[in-house]
Amino acid sequence: MKIRDDQPNSGINPQVTPLAERKLTKVAGSKPSVLRSETDRVTLSPRAREYREARKLLAETPDIRAEKVAEVKARLISGRYRIDADQIAARMIRDALTADD
Questions:
Q1: Sequence ranges of the domains in the chain
Q2: What pTM, to 2 d.p., does this model score?
């Protein structure tokens, strides 16, 4: 590709406002050299807001339910923990069939 100076504005999007024409203001609490354009805005879609809230809730949820672990541990130690293989198999099948809906 050859660079030429005879068409300096070719390929520039006409909707882009040159930086010199934008109103710039200092960002509060930042270094003196940090500026932002008053016309720049970010708008989140409703789905993006839901995603942000879901991530926030997930971050607040503990990875391990300590009370459940303590309950199962106590049942194991006391010998009251029984595993019903038929019940587990039935639930696995039910979950697999309903997951495709």
A1: 44-101
A2: 0.32
